Structure to design on (183 residues):
């Protein structure tokens, strides 16, 4: 190809490039400030307060009167109701924040059917006022921020679900926890 032909091809290509870009040069646009603001996230925390205690009651044996028990040496029998009582401080900050306070089943291990037959039920109070429940645990909202909440977790080994396969079994409550999970 000679120099003149190469020059004509280059000039044609340049003209096409300029024509293709010309359509995007005339776009209009505008903007306006919307006067937004800064947002911050809240928090959800749970801190143990004081020393917890364990009690046991059995309607058939002691009329349902709760007696202190050392949980690590106690041998449970059908009809026993074991109760954990402790206190936690709630950190719950956030608009529209709702959380559930409950026993963490994943921190409870066991053998046989004993664990299933002693499913935990969690209740809580602030002072003498019971907190609402939602079927899976205790309802916590931002109104409970900085409250020290008395937590009670009941392990009810009633006679009705007790089976022979729960004999000589164990439920390990050594690392038992309560959790606070956003609902």
């Amino acid at each position: 190809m000679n120099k003149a032909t190469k020059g004509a091809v280059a000039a044609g290509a340049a003209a096409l490039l300029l024509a293709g870009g010309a359509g995007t040069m005339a776009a209009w646009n505008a903007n306006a400030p919307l006067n937004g603001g800064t947002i911050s996230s809240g928090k959800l925390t749970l801190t143990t307060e004081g020393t917890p205690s364990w009690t046991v009651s059995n309607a058939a044996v002691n009329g349902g009167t709760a007696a202190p028990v050392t949980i690590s040496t106690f041998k449970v029998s059908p009809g026993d109701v074991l109760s954990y009582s402790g206190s936690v401080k709630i950190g719950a900050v956030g608009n529209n924040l709702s959380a559930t306070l409950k026993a963490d089943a994943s921190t409870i291990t066991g053998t046989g059917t004993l664990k299933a037959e002693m499913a935990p039920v969690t209740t809580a109070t602030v002072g003498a006022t019971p907190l609402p429940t939602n079927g899976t645990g205790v309802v916590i909202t931002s109104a409970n921020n900085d409250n020290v909440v008395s937590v009670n977790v009941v392990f009810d080994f009633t006679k009705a679900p007790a089976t022979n396969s729960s004999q000589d079994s164990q439920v390990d409550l050594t690392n038992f926890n309560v959790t606070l999970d956003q609902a």
